[in-house]
Amino acid sequence: MIEELKKNIIEKRDEIRKQYKAEIVAVFGSYARGDFHADSDLDLLVDMDPGASLFDLVGLQHFLEDRLGCKVDVGTRNSLREELRESVFREAIYL
Length: 95
Description:
alpha+beta, 95 residues, 49% helix
């Protein structure tokens, strides 16, 4: 499952860079740990270009939900809560 998700995300990489000024860096959370279920959301770590806005981030989230067919949460390195950063970086599957 994770390999298929990675492939789908990588295939959309250029479109994401151009349209949303972002790059998806890693998958983390239940999908990365392998303990996801039908109701799990897909947690993605993204790097946003300096000129990107909140609209770009929200647009990216909606784009990915439409294309991947699941609930998606996107977050930047700076938006991660301090107490979660270490575990996110440890469990992340980098793309």
